[in-house]
Amino acid sequence: MCTGMATGAGAAGNPAPEAAFQPDVGSDEAVAIFAGGCFWCVEEAFDQVDGVVSTTSGYTGGHLADPSYKDVTAETSGHAEAVKVVYKPDTVTYAHLLDVFWHNVDPTDAGGQFCDRGDSYRSEIFAVTPEQEATAKASKKTLEDDPDAPSPIVTEITPATTFYAAEEYHQNYYKKNSLRYKFYRNSCRRDATLEKRWGEVAGGH
Q1: Between vectors from CA 203 to CA 198 and to CA 5, what angle results, nearest 5°?
Q2: What is the H or E stretch that residue 43 is in?
Q3: What's the CA gap between 126 and 34, in Å, rounded?
Q4: Which of 57, 130, 154, 174 meets the CB 3.0–4.6 Å disulfide criterion with 181?
């Protein structure tokens, strides 16, 4: 499982967990938030995209303030493992980020993602702006109308709320612990499932 030591997360002064997300980036940057199962894998996918400035693993979509990994995976906080993607809109569009997201998840799985089971591993798009929400819904509709796309698509699209950065050891885990990460990813059959669902476009960047 996407797991490690369980230590506290979050910082004093954060807004309430259900408050609208407030982007904390420069005027030439934007934020997108995606949940796609284990956040180690989602980080790796978006780090490969030109125009992505940074990725941060964390928790969002729930009702508990300053959650820890243990809180989230206990399935009582309502939060999902998610990744905050900071990107340059002049270099990469939100529509392209959506395309990367879809092809790195199993959108038909309502019980988690791959070997990681439970609501905290759900796939979900957290729209930071009304424009993102509209674009995401249009993207989902396009897939639903595509006879070659996986179906039925159960991934939800919701307005983004407070995002809590995960514990430091989760950040860039795929780089810092590459052997353990590769073993986990292979054991979880993430790539095999993506290929089954998406074929040649699986994991597209």
Answers
A1: 120
A2: helix 39-47
A3: 6
A4: 174
Select from 187, 158, 196 the least CA-distant residue to 35. Answer: 158
Q: Classify each residue of 47-75 as buried b or exposed e, where b means 16 or more C-beta atoms within 10 Å of its C-beta.
A: bebeebbebbbbbbbbebbbbbbebbbee
15 token code pair: 């807004």
Residue-wise pLDDT tens digits, 65-77? 999 999 999 999 9
What's the rounded Cα separation, in Å, for the pair 155 and 94?
A: 17
Catalytic residue flag (residue 38): yes
Q: Which of 2, 38, 41, 188 is catalytic?
A: 38
Please report the sign of the dihedral spanned by the C-alpha atoms of residue 17, residue 18, residue 19, residue 20.
positive
Sort strands 112-113 and 164-165 into parallel, antiparallel or unpaired: unpaired
